[in-house]
Amino acid sequence: MSDVAPNPAAERFPNGPFTRYMIGEGISMTGTWMQGMALGWVMTEVVAREGLQRYEGMLQAAPHLASGLVMLVLFRLGGAYADRHDKRLILQVCQLAQIGFALAIGQLVAHGALHTWHLIVAAALLGFSSSFEMPAAAAIVPELVAKENVAKAISVDRAVFHATRLIGPAAAGYLVGRFGAQWAFYLNAASFVALMAALATLPRRAQGTAEEEQKRQGDAGEGFRHVRQDKPSLAMVALLATNTLFVFPVIIVLLPLYAKNDLRATAEQMGLLMLCSGLGSVSGSLLIMALKPPLRRLAILTGMVLACGALVSLSQADGLVWAGASLVALAVGVSTLVGLANTIVQERSPAELRGRVSAVAGLSFFGFLPFAAMIMGWMTDLFKLRNVLLGSSVCYAVIGLLVMLTVGSKVTGEKEQAA
To answer: Quick one: pLDDT at residue 408?
Structure first.
């Protein structure tokens, strides 16, 4: 790892370290999306093989519950570690752990020995790793660029994240259909090497003032206090939580069930549906990069309306084209909202608290997703997925609007930020 810290303000955007990190992350995230698609598909097959179709919705959500519960316990520790210790080293260790998990599941799939409990245990172990990886990954990006380029850097980071959804799921669908699901796990393990190589070239974080360095050693609760006291940050975290409760379970957990049971899709077609979602997410990320700060609140409200309409459309879709178009619209709305929310939270976070604030923002996703996924899965088993989609749309609209009419009314832009 490089020991010389450049002055980010003296460099153009994007600079060398940021570019190398984005390339490594792009390759790694492509593998992660491949594994995510294969994991959902494999779970549907394992559940059918074990005769557990009656509980299919809940079992599809069970790995997310296992992972989320572990992260719920450890997220504060992970955020504190990200502020106090070398983020590069934290991320390197986490990549090694995830390589092991991917290879282990791939071997079980290859030998036909995979059971539902394997996936749940693996998810719990992955949650342990992610508790430290997520805050460090979120906090390292702003450190690689000058302060005035933080919003651009986060937008590029989100665009890379979502662009990989155009490749990963479609590639996984092809691999699962032609060569077997184990290859998605093997290639994901290999993809982590690219990110580890990029991390090895990054410079150390520039030393802050004595006061800033002392604050880095503060307790994990300081991230909560900052978010609670800063109303725009609080509004954005609340919106992230609302997305997690009513939208992300559809995209992350229930889409394999929707594709296989409602649309009668093949593995390749499932990959194409995820590609549609990725296309919408990339479009939303590019929109954020071109958006001026005074228009942020309008963009968030527009994203909410688009997401609600897309959920209703998905509940009525009777073919792949209709469903694919609905997923594009849903992803545009969600990625715009989530991208802006994360940008605002990061911009308003003091550098010495960024790891802990990132952990709080991450909690709005990983802390709520396991419970939301289980509830959605349970409701799907009881009321059918299409009815759950309609209910999610209504709840999302009501709660999101309440947030924006209260604390969200303070989200205006850069001038308000500096006040």
So the answer is: 59
